[in-house]
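Record type: ASSEMBLY
Status: queued
Input:
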Amino acid sequence: MGARVLVVEDDPALRETLVAILVEEGYLVDQAPHGAAALARVSVQMPDVIVLDLMLPIMDGATFVRELCRRGLRASLSILVLTADARMEVKVRQIGVEAALAKPFDLDVLLNEIARLAPA
Amino acid sequence: MRRLITGLGHLNEAILGSDLAGAYIMNVGLSMGAAIEAEYKQFWGIERPFTLDEYAHVIVDLKQKIQGNFSIVSIAPEAVVVRTTSCPFDAFVRQSPSLCFMTSSVFGGIAARNFGWSKVVLHKRIALGDPGCYVTVHLQRTPEAEAAVGREYSPDADQASPDIAEQLRLMDSVRQLRRRLGETSSQWTEVVDGAAEAIAVVDHDRRTSFANARWRDILGIEGGEFVGGQLVYQIHPDDQEAATAAFTQALGGERIRGCPWRMRHRDGSYRDLLGSIGPLRDDDGRIIGALLIARDMTAEHEAQRLKDDFVSAASHELRTPVTTIRALTDIMLRAVDRGATLDPDQLTRRLEIIRQQADRLTRLSTDLIDATQLQAGRLAVRRDPEDLIAAVEASVRQRRDLLEGNDRHRIALTHPPAPVFVALDRMRVEQVLDNLLDNAVKYSPAGGLVRVNVAVDQQAARVSISDDGIGVPAEDLPHLFEPFYRGANAPTHGFSGLGLGLYVSKALIEAHGGDIVVASDGRGTTFTLVLPLGQDRV
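Status: finished
Output:
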């Protein structure tokens, strides 16, 4: 435990919920409402895992991932994408992430995935 | 058909081979539209009539625009400068299609008829590649020309300078060819022109030698304008390579189906075509060109794109609240399973979120159902005399209840002391008020004040809802009540929604004989719901 997780989600209620759940699980949790804010957070504190929504305002999830690659930060963290659209599968594969879950997801599945991606 | 195309091929060979694409069409005559002239005068700051030198530059300039090249605008005879004008290119063509082809020096002769200038001196040849070359002309006034003003112009090849005489002779042979062709092909032209598919023919040099009405319609071109242009230049740059390869194959005798090409309309937009291309042979079986038959898929593709966007947005809008509800119930159930005691504040907060998300889903499904009913013309209201103030109070009370706990917004309500009875469907009016209040809260910052005011005069009762939020950009205002429309600044501020709420709200109030109007100065927005009292006043 104690791994750092960054939650990037534009919907305030879902973001608040995810943060609350992960804090309860013992993670060190940071949050951002969109890709641009997430980049700012990453530059302050590198997370171990990013929980990322793809449909985001200002800077969407795919652009955010590309930005991480461009800055050479991609290799040192894992990304779990949350999608609301089943047809996003192609896009998820294109941007290349460690894991993806379709909304709504089972809480246990989410927590297992994050535990798997977070360093022991 | 084949005969027609063959004939056209010969015709165009004659025309194009002679570098006379311009002269060919020029015999329709020159008449510069007054609006075009005015545009150029305004741009150049000229108030007097044009000199012919200036006219010549206008012509070259127009031609360049039509070809999609840079624009040459200069009134100094020797100077060629690259500039753009404020002239709306499309309007030129609509008003004066014949202008498009005023490129050869014969132009001067025609100009003489109309404007009383005569002697044409070839001023400058500008080789631009396609089609052939263009010239700027320098025109001189002569006494003969002044005498000829207003009289019928009939060019006399014997009297003309060698350059002009050559062109006039070619023009004449073109005219004869056209006449001969017209006699045999008019019925075929009708058939091909009436076809639902776009049909065009390109010759061995990839120049368009024929295009039917549908094709011209798709590209926004008129009359014979297509003749002689390199077809590939009208194709989207990304598709040009594939198109060129297909032309080569077709001219080599192959038939290729299912070619998806985007072609540029005159207005600059691209049309999605799906076509096939194959060889066109003459009576002896020789390949004389390639025949293209295509369908315009733009509307279908656009409809599909809108549908995809909607499904994607709806999916996101519906799944996000469900995800929150699911995650919160999961974690609370886990706590119960483990026998843990839930912190009362935390429990309250989580249940509140669940309620908000459930309300959000209810509103979404109501909007979706109402929008469907509305589009089917089945959205009805049942009006009874009701106190409007009571309805507004109920909506405000309900919204305040929802806001309680986070304390981020305040709602101030002002209204006249006496009840205001209006014939209304109370449930529907409350739905509209709820929607407007939800927007006001959503689009204004934490701590913001939402002001609700009820006013009444002889004609109507008005409920205005004002916020001090991000406002609505002026360009969005006219579209705000369109279905699926979302303000350009909504996504950047992270606001979700399907763009149905205002559409449905306006329809509901219109069903009451009223209206919703919106005003925004970029800092805050006011929606005013107007319900006429009329004879309905109780």
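Annotation: The longest strand of chain A covers residues 78-83.
Annotation: The helical segments of chain A are 12-24, 35-44, 61-70, 89-95, 107-117.
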